[in-house]
Amino acid sequence: MVRFLLARPIAVLMTFVALMVFSIIVFRTLPISLLPPIDVPQIVIKVNYPNASPEAIEQNVLSNIREELMTLNGLEEVDSKAGSEVGTIRLTFDYGTKMELAYIDVNEKIDRITNSLPSDLVRPQVIRINTNDIPVIRVQVVPKPGIDYAEVSLLAENVLKKRLEQLQGVSLVDINGKKEKGISVTPDKSALRALGMTEENLIQAIRNGNEELPGISVEDGQFRYYLRMATRVDTPEDIMRLPVRNNNGTTVDVARVAQVKYENKDVLGYHYFGTQEGLVITVHKQASAKMNEMMPLIYESLEFFKNDYPQVDFDVTQDQSTLLNAGISNLQTSLLFGGLFAFGVLFVFMGNYRTPVIIGISLPSSLIISFLVFYFFEISINVISLSGLALGLGMLIDNAIIVLDNITRKRKEGLPIFEACVQGVNEVMSALISSVLTTLAVFIPLVFLSGISGALFYDQAVSVAAILFVSLLVAFILLPMLYHFFFKNKPVEDIAKEDSKLFGKVLKGYKKLYQVIFLRRGLSFIIFLIFIPIALLVSQLLDSQGLPPIEKFDALVEIDWNEPIGVEQNRDRLLSSLEALGDGYLKAESDIGVRQFLLFDGENSIQQASVYFLFESQEKKNSLMDRFRRLLAENFPGANVSIMDAPNAFDQLFASNLPYYEVRWKDLGTKRPVEEERMDEWLKTFPTQNYDRGPALQKEASVVFSLDAAKMTTYGVSVSSIQDQVQKLFGNFTITEIKRFGEITPIRIKGERNDFEQILRQNYVPGTDGNEYAISNFIRFDYVNHYKFVTADKGGVYQSVLLTSDNPTQYDKSINQWGADKNLGVSFFGQYFKDKETISQLIGILLVSVVLLYFILSAQFESFVQPLIVIFTLPLGIGGAFIVLLITGTSLNVMSAIGLVVMLGIMVNDAILKIDTINRLRLKYAIETSLSAKEILNRALFEAGEIRLKPILMTSVTTILALIPVVFSAGLGADLQRPLVFSVIGGLTIGTFTALYFVPLAYWFIGGKVSIKDPETVIV
């Protein structure tokens, strides 16, 4: 095939040019995003039920929804959590479930049970989780002093949001911190009593004044007119002119007995930018959008906003495109330094400019053509797929160097340039194909990991496979053609003199060390074998992490005040803490209380707040966060404070909502939470005290009202009148609503803000005797500690503790006995079991990879023994990588693991080519000479080492030098890539030595034992 294609250079060249043109066209259509559009198999249902207790939300809302959703297809887990005024249900599905259909099913089931839910409950919100739900940027909108906040909220909702949604690539714009206008009615109770009126007279008057007559029309001759009530109100002034009438017929205007005015509706949450109240707009991208094109449009729109709306200040925070830019920058750096160092190393080793130019052409050609594969497999350009391309670049350079070196060697043997190109490619073709297949055998099975990890590896596996197969295409067709073009007029004598003086010295040193090692073959082989377990044991000294520690200049502080405070108190505490902290940060934004985001799937609680800080340096961040922690601990010792690095898109994607090890129990008798006093006694005998209370065991103080039925009967006071009064005094009582062109303005009774005991004493209810009595006469109240949350799963309501022991499973047996003694059904749950399952999957997948690797090499070498040589080289390279990771203080993480795969791919490639060369030389000498088998083996091992020395050294040195600049670089991209670089450098340093000396040693003891049986076959 190579001969056929090289005979038609113009056709081959035009084909490659056409492929590159098509690839460039396709590249312009590929979506560019931060992460692959992964369907996370979770759906969250949020419930907002003002003034409802956790028990009421669980019994009246969440239990009904859970029962209805149990029949969903693919449903794996159900977890619900009811708190004060809010509740959430998290549905987890089997991975692979069609989440579009699951989302529709959930909505349909909720619509089906709407009538069984409380009538005053807003429809539960259903949120489908997707990687594209992670906002790419947050826009801060801060009204200037004196500007009406409600008007700015309308501006953000009706103008800014719409303009941002019209930008190309934007899928959703979400807002938090909005305030809406309403009309408040504050009764003058003394005036009402003086006129013999009640609040009910006032309420009825306002309702009558806002009546509609829908669908009523009258005829006037040949015309028909629709009726409209002229008394319908639009403004507070209209309401104040309405007449109020008592039972005796006395009539006055509303203005005489109440104050009516526009006010912002009561809110459950706030957003602050620094210490200024404002709104935040989060922007989400479409799955097919290009982030690098969308972000400039957003920044351009913000400049227009600043000019068009001078009454508002704008700013941006948490721009996630920095991660993508870091990934693209890393790829560009790899290409730039890879090309420069390849040129330099080849020039040093080869002493000519033509070979580096050929590789300089092949590298970008392979990369560009790879994007065609992206198009056909519907892969976006994201951080994951870009890391796959960077992963394959080392192998790409490796293949190019091997092919060119082999062609050059054939030229030195005196073959014509055409035959040298043909034979040079054919000789290494099967070995290179095997090396690519073995790399994919190590990597591609990771796609079958369950969950998000497997989905992420899919993009990486496709990108690696794409660039490796394209690199083979380039190495087998384009490279020999370019070699023929550049060297066709160069005489053979010049080719023979191409080795530089430096390489001559390296070759001389290699031969001396080779002789020393082979004089003591047994001892040298034993030393290599002893090094394997010692190096692998180094892994026990390494820390394990998900992502490498990245130097971040931002932080996130999560605060739970752990007290039953209102949202205003929550805000005041946080603002006072920020003011006491000072101005040591660049930017800060706070979400306080309940958040209004449509896509927020976290826990909404009035008593919680989160603050994002951006600092100018790591030192400033550390010192200020320590000070902030101390400040909160001194002023609010009961608060739970968590300070962490601000999560980026990676962290948010991989973050787990599961506790590490949770012990759950259910009361088998009552099916309800165990009472506080009894539970506290039981926990004293719990088998271990190394635990934290789970959500359903956390307590908060509350007030419980109890009605005195005896007194109510004596004075003729009805239960309904007490309940109505309490609702008006402490609740959110809506009289009616004004509806205009889709805009709804509620009219509400404004409750009193005094101490609740005083309110009960100062307000009255009528009795049957016509007298009024203070409400405090009929209500008793107690301060009690109640459970803060009610949690439930598929089996119903449960309570739990979170074990903090290093070995939590040691208590399983005694905990089961503890539960059985108290008629509790005990179960164990948490991330511990998920991690255990993932590790077992990973071990199984790696075993499959090794078996695949063995099968491929057995087919390549036609031997069951020689593949073991390649497999034995792998732990040597891994051990070398572990040693460098330990020396540099780097952890085992996702990026260092990817570096191991890169390094092993190059090592396997070198070992395969070395063994393949030894086999061919043994076959050649067996045919051409009459030497003994031992002499043939010695000669083949020595000459194969000399032949493969240059490509092995050039590949390793080029790869290492191309990666070294990352070690000394700063920034997010360098922090991400540095563990990968250390893995590759450590592995290749040992791996190069292994390929040069361990492979021939292992071949001597393992692969060379069987003599040649048939000259027509490859050595067995």
TrEMBL record:
Transmembrane segments: 12-30, 331-350, 357-377, 383-404, 436-458, 464-487, 522-542, 839-857, 869-888, 894-913, 952-974, 980-1006
UniProt entry keywords in alphabetical sequence: Membrane, Transmembrane, Transmembrane helix
Top-level taxonomic group: Bacteria
PANTHER family to which the protein is assigned, alphabetical: PTHR32063, SWARMING MOTILITY PROTEIN SWRC (PTHR32063:SF0)
UniProt name for this protein: Efflux RND transporter permease subunit
High-level lineage: Bacteria, Pseudomonadati, Bacteroidota, Cytophagia, Cytophagales
UniProt xrefs under InterPro entries: AcrB_DN_DC_subdom, Acrflvin-R
